[in-house]
Amino acid sequence: MASFQFVIKNAKGVRSEGVLKASNMDEAIDKLSREGGTIISVKSTGEGAFKGKLSLFDKLMLAIYKFRTGVSLKVLVFFTRQLSTMFSAGLTIEKSISNLEKEEKNSKFRKVLVRIANDIKKGYSLSEAMEQHPGVFNPLYISLVKAGEISGTLHTVLDELSEYLEKIEDTRRKVWSALVYPIFILFFLFVVIWGLFYYIIPSFSSVYASFNAELPAPTLVAIAISEFIRNNIFFAFLIIISAVMAFFLFYLSDKGRYIIDSLILKFPVIGNLIYNSIMSNFARTFSILMASGVPIMDTLELVENVVQNAVAESAVRKARIMVKEGYSVAGAFKKTGVFSPTLLQMISTGEDTGDMDKLLGKAAEFFEKLVDSVIDRLTSLIEPILIILMAGLVGAIIIVIYLPIFNLGLAISSGLK
Asked: Which SS3 state, helix, strand or coil, does residue 19 take?
């Protein structure tokens, strides 16, 4: 007989979960129905949100696939909100998807909606149809839809999912708005330095040659770099592209991603911003999964994929193993040493009161406010710091360029005396 993991609520609304033996899914549901209470979810214990670790090649192929087929979070947010509204208004899922497909302006997503509508006509459930498009709908999205289908509360789950995605998109937008300015300035700085080495320094080389004097070491280094760039322009671009590709492949590896994500979290101000964003996403995701009746082990497995930071993912993975061994959820996360004391306190209180989903929702709001606070501070600090950095680097290169002329002027002045 197979094992099935279940989540039910009794007449008082108290949530409980466990494992039962049955020949198939129908028999498992029948057993739970006879016991009374509302069935939230039933799932074979052989099923999981993620199955095994991917190789580096698989990760590369998955990244390429998601790039080709994926759509922006903004498109997904609008789709989920519209689907929730139409379904709540009494339209069938098939009719709602068909209407949205006709109005969709994104060509890639329109093709996805056409295929989902066709699969539903063939008898697939909405979650089964969405599973055919992993580049668009992640395991979290599919699991929530599946939980809503089993519990008969799909309209409620879709509404909560749309609100969840809107808040995640809003947090992501705020983080990127704080980072886009420094990224632009650093790119502009790269272009300016490239221009100095490619155009300005070579124009001074003939002037230096007329001095017939020994040039300062910094100037010789600058001339050597400039000549290399001009004489090996294709090779220079090849080195840059190779470096970017090497970094990308290194980041795809488990060890490389962990090292880079660790360094990001230690970076002044920006690290704090990323950390609070991770805590916000973690709490928000945990909250909606618990509220939708997803079993705790599946919740932890799905949350691991949502935090999008190798350090936090490793901590969730360790906590999941400890919970499976009998630790409390709060105790397991505390032992990882990664999560905020405020978040741990909310989880601990939620375990005691049975309101973990609500308390995690409050924790998510708390960390969202912290993200806003860090962004305000970052905006006020980053501009003067980047201006000083840019002025320092460009000024240093210009001094190196003019150093021989300064030395020549000093030598002439000394000779006249």
From this structure: strand
Q: Do domains 73-162 and 163-417 have the same CATH topology?
A: yes
H helix runs in 253-355, sequence order? 254-266, 270-291, 296-306, 310-324, 329-336, 341-353
**pTM of the complete model beyond 0.85:** no
* Helix (H/G/I), strand (E/B), else coil: 35: helix
Per CATH, the number for 73-162 is 1.20.81.30
What is residue 308's three-state secondary structure?
A: coil
Q: Which of 258-262, 282-286, 352-356 has the highest mean pLDDT?
A: 258-262
The least confident of 175-179, 282-286, 390-394 is 175-179
Domains of the chain, by residue range, sit at: 2-44, 73-162, 163-417
| Residue pair 9/33 in contact by the 8 Å Cβ criterion | no
Which CATH code for domain 163-417? 1.20.81.30
Q: What backbone torsions phi and psi does residue 17 show, to the nearest 5 degrees?
A: -140, 160
The H-assigned helical ranges of 196-253 are 201-209, 217-231, 233-252
For 338, 346, 399, the CA distances from 333, given in Å and listed in that order, are 8, 12, 53
Asked whether the beta carbons of 97 and 125 are under 8 A apart, the reply is no
